[in-house]
Structure formats: structure tokens, C-alpha cells
Write a structure and sequence with these properties.
3 domains, two-stranded antiparallel ribbon, globular, binds zinc ion
Amino acid sequence: MARGKKKPPTAPEPTGTVEWLLGTCSVHVQHLMDKGGKRGYRSLFTSDESRKEFKKELYDISKLGITLRPWKARVFQLFEFEWTRREPKVMKRFSQEYLHGRAVNWTTADQEPGLPDQNNGDERGNRTYKDEATDWNRLSLRAWYREHMEWMRKHPFTNQLFLTKAEHIKEDQWRSVQQLLRDTFIFDVTATRELEITYSPFHPPEKATCVFLLSKESYKAIASKHGGERSTIEEHAKPILQNKELLYTGDMDRITSLDDFHKSSKGACMLYSIVRTGAATSCACTCIDYQMKETCDCSLAWDVKHGRIQIPEEKDIKVIGEETKRGGRRKARKGGALTFDQPRFSIPPKAPAATAPPPHPFG
Ligand SMILES: [Zn+2]
């Protein structure tokens, strides 16, 4: 198809009457690329390198968040256009199977935040289930149902909890939230807008207060290249935040490649005021963490900054220190001494006291 000529197919419109979607596990979609034989795609690729790139692209697309759901059809279209040129055999089959037809719901855009776009959790329990419930026997439906119900009775799933309450937030996350608030201007250099956004595949779009802020990655990139002064961050943040905002307000034809789309989408986060009742934080976020776990550094830091969540004393870095237990921040040096790696970017000074904090946009 010629670029720019064909209008993107219409995105699936949530009607408010739909209660479920037929979902496809995104990890399975990606794994099929490695698989040989008739079911797999491996032999259709022209090179291993190209296959890995294709898989990486699938991963990025699978993380397309719910607020970008109206973009899904356009993203699929750009993907199809680009890869039909590079891997025609792969795309011929892939389009039919996962871009059109029944198995198209394999992105986080097809789920509300906190719900997975894959069934890895279930797969992990597969062995236990076979050990305990069916004893690895192939059973007739009637026999299986009896065994299954017997097993279910012993496993009170009603006791399961979503780990989304503030008290479930782990020490590492509390640390990084406090460091972000102290060492960066991410939560000071923001843009607030009232926008109509898609927050669920099951409900029509709604007006919400939306706050745009730099993603950690783009903040790091700016600070390490140009320095961490507030004015510098502000200057470089402006076009990045505007590009992200345009994804929600601008014309879709403006984006003509997947690269453009990913750049606009990954450069900044958008906090939005619509959350599930009982969520840990008062705002949701477009970042992958929030879409996957219904909590993230950005939304938690925002609530801490605006006094909506108190840092528990036993999680306060002034009390517990700054080191992270896990992760490779400490490296053994010659002579056995342990030293920290140099930070990649300089820590900017605290914001001048004269600047009054902006009013809480969700107030
Ligand atoms: Zn976030």
C-alpha cells in the first residue's frame, strides 16, 4: 500500500456495552518467531538479525498502552507497511494471523492497567496444576471437571490480592521515587491539559486532567548531554512534551513511521486522573510499568510530591540509606574495595526556593 494514500482502518471503538475481549498472549506471538516447523515463523525470515529486529518491534507494539488505543490500527498499518518491504513472506502470514481477523488483541491497549497482555503467570502454574489436579492424566471432560473442581475447592483463590496498594510498594521503588524527587526536575517541568482520553477498552473516552512529564530515560539523556540545570531541562523538555501531547490531540497522518511513533510515545509519560477504585495512587500513568502493574515511580512520586501519600518512615532514605540491595550498582574493584560507579549525569541543585510549587492539578 502507498504511504499516506490509504486511510488507516478505524480503531475498534469501545461502546460501553462490550464486557470482554478475545485476547491473544503477546509472549506467544513473539515466541512463534523463534519456532521452527510448520507452526513457527523462523524459516520464513531472510536472516536471524532481521528476525530479532522483528521480535523487538513486536515487543514494543505489545506495550502500546490503553490511552493510545485509538492509535492501534495506525501502528499496525505502519508496521505492516515497513515489514512487507523487508520480510514479505513473514508479513503475508503475520498480517492474516495477528493484524487482521480474530487474534488481534495482543497489546496492553486491549487491557485495563494492571491486567496482563500475556498468560505467563498461568503458564508458570501449569506444572503445579498437572501435578496436583490431574496427575498428568488425559481425562475425559466429565472426569477432568470432577478433578478440577476438587482441586479448586482446596485453593481459595478469593484470598488472592492485587499488589497495588501503597503498603505493597517495595523498598527499591520507594528509594527510586525519593531519589527522582530529590535529584531531578521531572516533576517540576510539566504541562497540564484537560483531554479526552481512552482509559479502558470497555468504556467510551472521557475527559481527564492529564499531566505530561519527561520519562526517566529522556531526562537522563538530556541531563548527561546538556547538564541538569532547571532552565536546560525546561528548554529540552518542551518539544518532547509537545510531541507526546500531539499523540492525543494531533492528526494521525502526521506520524509516518514507527520510529516517529515510538519517539513521541517513549520520550514522555502522561499521568491521567482516571484510576480504578482501590488503586494505589491517585493518578494512572502511560508508562509500561503502570500498564503492567498498576503502579509506577512516576505516579507514586507525583502523589508524594503533592502530599497525597506519605513516605513510610521505615522506607525513608534518610533513615534506611540510599543503596539498593539488589541490582548491579556496586562493583568489586581491584584490591577488594567497593566503590560506587560514577553517576552518568550530574545531580542538579535543588529548585530555587522562590518558585512556588504549582497547584495540584488533580485537586
Ligand atoms: Zn509511570
